Prior knowledge:
The protein is of the alpha/beta class. It has a single domain, classed as Rossmann fold, CATH 3.40.50. The protein has helices at residues 15-23, 30-42, 51-65, 79-85, 101-112, 127-130, 150-160, 184-198; strands at 3-4, 7-8, 69-73, 93-98, 120-124, 138-143, 161-170, 202-207, 213-218. The chain is globular, with a radius of gyration of 16 Å.
Amino acid sequence: MKKHRGKPIVQITDPEIEKYALEMTTSESEHLRQLVKSSEEELDYVDMLCGNLVGQLLKMLIKISGARRVLEIGTFTGYSALMMAGALPEKGEIITIEMNLLYQELCEKHFAKYDLEQKIQLIKGNAREELPMLSGNFDLIFLDADKIGYPVYYEESLKKLAPGGLLVVDNVLWDGSVLQPQDQKAEALHEFNKRVTEDERVENVLLPVRDGVTVIRKK
């Protein structure tokens, strides 16, 4: 069984169903396929990439909502940032925050290869420190960072979201371990999921796509 994050991956969706879903979903660009290949060569845990299903969901949400200003918390190697940048209008922008030095280097290299580089601003630093310093509102925020920090990122994201804005949160099922949490991250994500569901400031839907994606709309 493949591993990532130091533990086995539990397939939430039947593998054949997920394969079929991918086959029946708009394909990622050749540039992004090359990015995935490059990431596989450089790292041994590319399952941290959001993948084409989640990437196309992000693109669709940006286009449907008419988002022009996007924030990403957790860049990894740049796949989701490039996917979202490709959905933005001509004068749209995405700000993405990454604290890991290796990931910073890799995503800078990947951003430099594409014409979308002018739409993407990479902030190198800890999101807990950088988020309060950002000015202006965002139309969509994608959260895919350290799971223990989700409650902090959630509150800061709500402050930065425009009314009616969307917050998309990845890995909310954590390989299914939120059903019976046995470790700190699983427990933190379970509590986070309950917190969002009970928060009257928002409305949300949790989708069992890949490792679980929650789409939150600020009222």
